[in-house]
Every structure is written in structure tokens, then in C-alpha cells.
Amino acid sequence: MTTIRVAGPPPYDVVIDAGALGSLPRLLGPARVAVVVADARLADRAEQVRRLLPDVDVTVELVPSGEQSKTVGELDRLWHAFATAGLSRSDAVVSFGGGATTDLAGFAAATWMRGVRVVHVPTTLLAMVDAAVGGKTGINTDAGKNLVGAFHPPAAVVVDLDLLSTLPAAEWTNGMAEVVKAGFVADAGILDLVRDDPHLHARELVERSIAMKATVVSEDLTEAGRREILNYGHTLGHAIERREEYRMPHGHAVSIGMVYAAEVAELSGTARIGFAAEHREILSGVGLPTSYDADAFDDLYDAMRLDKKARAGRLRFVLLSDVGKPVGLDDPDRELLAAAYERLVAS
Ligand SMILES: NC(=O)c1ccc[n+]([C@@H]2O[C@H](COP(=O)([O-])OP(=O)(O)OC[C@H]3O[C@@H](n4cnc5c(N)ncnc54)[C@H](O)[C@@H]3O)[C@@H](O)[C@H]2O)c1
Ligand SMILES: [Zn+2]
Q1: Of 116, 142, 166, at which residue does a domain stop?
Q2: What is the spatial distance between Cα 255 and Cα 236, in angstroms, rounded to a whole number?
Q3: Which CATH number is 15's domain given?
Q4: Ligand 2 mean position to 328 CA, how many Å?
Q5: Residue 86, Ramachandran bin (φ over 0: left; ψ between -120 and 50: alpha; else beta)
Q6: N vs C: which end of the chain shows fewer Cβ within 10 Å?
Q7: Same domain, 207 and 317
Q8: pLDDT digits (tens, 9 = 90+) for 66-93
Q9: pTM passes above 0.90
Q10: Cα(78) to centroid of ligand 2, in Å?
């Protein structure tokens, strides 16, 4: 079992192992009541949680599979379920699902009685390496994705690698984009393992990716400074997702966005020639896309300037001068961005 400690406040542990779910009783703390908020697709396995906690009054609350659950309607339903279960300040919520479920359950826990403990049990690669660690929770509204939410660090995160056995291949690929991102922004060793065989090295990839995110969020809970490197590839990625009306998987959009950031870095003289080609090779090697529509630049440029992270219309990119060496780029010329886009679509 590997344990990675994330600095608080308050600090919490991420435990990683095949069969790590067995640690849930220890990590749940003194709760007498627990509400397990589970993705409906995982109903059978969520029931097993009940058996693990014979001394706790467990309610399993199923939510719609995936993104459809991140609504104010589901949040309201969970608040009712918490009331019915008698969930008090000393009790706990357990999330059991992908990032959509951990985001929703985390936000429900953040808001119930101004905050009760939540233990995340992520079941997708993406949720293990990204969504469950760091304390961001939230839902979608008409105003946009993830605009309503709270920072609410979990009491613990249980990463049971056995849960990945049923994950569809497409969801694995989606999560690999964030794994490769972790490699580029902070850990060249991840890139070597991905080049070799990601399935063979699943455990080490999960551990190293979580270690990267844990280090970053430990230094910076609320994304003022270093946390920005987690946004690598996401500036163009978010713009593509919006243009696709969120029908393109997040990992695909981020993959294209990372190649683009590497092209911008090369063109601006920030990174060596060949850096973008290295991105393409690794990302396409795991089945991720590395190019996009030739005529989309104008749309994407406008969308990037409207992004919630582009403060007051000022565009800011996270670039890398090399693997593990982030540099910010403020207000780049439109010409530079257009030229980098040409190279993205030509590849
Ligand atoms: N809070 C954060 O810091 C953060 C970071 C990244 C992403 N997110 C959020 O995470 C969400 C995406 O997460 P995701 O990619 O895990 O998607 P998801 O939760 O929508 O799950 C993807 C699909 O996989 C299924 N699934 C989950 N686990 C499974 C398993 N073990 N076996 C078989 N099927 C399984 C789900 O039913 C769903 O259909 C988005 O809502 C995003 O906003 C949050
Ligand atoms: Zn992402």
C-alpha cells in the first residue's frame, strides 16, 4: 500500500493499492452514519461498501451515471437523502464513482451543515489521478460547467486499483491525457513509462501522477500560483470543449491543447525544436488526438479569451521550456497563436 499525504488544512492521505477499499473503515473515522453517493453503473460494488462497514449505518444513494449527475436537482436530492439518513456533523459522505460523482458528492458534503467529511473512492483513471485529489468540488448550471462549487478537501482518498478492471477503454484513454500532462509538467519518468506500456505500469503511473498533483495542491490550495501548471493544455482544451458543446471527451481536448501549447512554446523560442513532435508521439501512442479542425482558430481564440481563467480578457498560457519546466505566457500576440495553430492542424 502506498500512502501519499496531501498538506491541508487539514492534511489528508491518499492510499493506493489493489484492494485499498479495505482501508475505508480506518479512513472513515468516527462516523456512525455514512451516505455512499455512488454512480448508478457501479451499484453492485457500492453495495460492498455496506459490508465493509458493519458498525456504521450506511445508506447507498445512487446518482445518474457520469456528467448527468452534476446538477442542482441531484444536489437537492442528496441533501434530502442526508436529512433522511440523519447525517450529522460527525458523520461522513463517501463518494464512489468517476470525477462527476466525486465532484457532486464532494459539493454535497461541502454544503451539508456547512461541511461534513467526505472520503472519495474514485473509480476512473481520471478521477484517481485528478478529480479526487485537490479539494475542488462542484456542479454544472445553465451558466456553465463547474461554475458553482467549493473548495472542500476530502478526509481521505481511497484509490483501489482493482476498480479499474471494468473501466471501458475509452475512459482509460481519457484519463491518460492527465497522466501524460503530469509527466510533461513535472515528471519525465511518467513519460518513459507511458512510452513503454501504460497498462503494464498502471500502478506506478497512478502513484506518480497523484504525487505530482499532491505536491502542487499542497503548496497552493486555491490556485493562486503553482497550481496553474495543472492547467497545461487546458487553455485551448477548454475552448475546444466549448466549441464541441462538451461532446468531445475532456482528455481528447486536453491532448490537442498540450500539443498546441508545445507548438506555441517552440514557435516563441521557449522550447527546443521537436518538443511538439515529442508530445504528438506520446499522446497518439495512447490513442489520443493531436490535431483539430483547420478552420476553428477564430472561434477558439474568442473562446479562450472568454474562459473563466482568462482574467478580464487577458489570455495566459502555461508553457513548458522543457519537461518539468513551466513558464507563464501573458497576452501572446494573436499572430503567434494563429501561426502555432497552423502547425497544429498541419500535423
Ligand atoms: N475536482 C477536480 O479537480 C476535477 C478535476 C478533473 C475533472 N473533474 C471532473 O470530473 C468529471 C470527469 O470525470 P470522469 O472522466 O471520471 O467521468 P465520469 O465520472 O463521468 O465517469 C465516466 C464514465 O465511466 C463510468 N465509470 C466510472 N467508473 C467506472 C468503472 N470502474 N467501471 C466502469 N465504468 C465506470 C461512469 O458511469 C461514466 O459513464 C468532470 O465532471 C470534471 O469536471 C474534476
Ligand atoms: Zn483536465
Answers
A1: 166
A2: 10
A3: 3.40.50.1970
A4: 18
A5: left
A6: N
A7: yes
A8: 999 999 999 999 999 999 999 999 999 9
A9: yes
A10: 26
